[in-house]
Amino acid sequence: MFQLGFGMSAVQAGSLTFVAAVGSVAMRFFMPRVLNRFGFRRVLVFNTPIVAAMVAGFALMQATTPVWIVLAYIFIFGVFRSAQWASTGNLAYSDIAPEQLARFSALYYILWQLAVAISVGLAAAALSFLAGGGPAVADDFRILFVIEGVITLCALLAYLKLTPQDGAHVSGHGAQMNTE
Predict the structure, then answer these.
(1) Is 131 helix (H, G, I), strand (E, B) or coil?
(2) How far lies 115's CA from each of 13, 15, 38, 73, 82, in Å?
(3) pTM (predicted TM-score)
(4) Stretch 1-17: mean pLDDT, rounded?
């Protein structure tokens, strides 16, 4: 959207979007404590609607939105996206026996990359459809962001089925966390 919709160069767009990675890295330091305190279920049930709203919220950005607002928004999005990925990733490993960990890790990584590739492909196809085969404009991206936000929100249905004890042996939720 920054490049096609707002006319920015790749360097300009990348200079804005890299702050999501900064937010992601910053959140990684806090995730063990967050998961220990609240558990996987509460984190995912709380965080998923926020991430969904933030994805859809990109639809509100304009070429005239002040850079500091864009940077702050993308940073905060990176924080919440990191909480989502760290929670789901750690929860995925929570029921794996130690002797199966190496095989599961390889499979999980392959499936994660496959899911990302499929998602990017579907988003690109949807964007092409919205653009009518021509170059995408900002409004095409806006529609796509809302669709992606709704799809993200659908994950909440699965997270609501979690119990507070799910993954507790990984997160330490319900036990005193060792801070040494």
Answers:
(1) coil
(2) 25, 26, 28, 25, 17
(3) 0.88
(4) 91
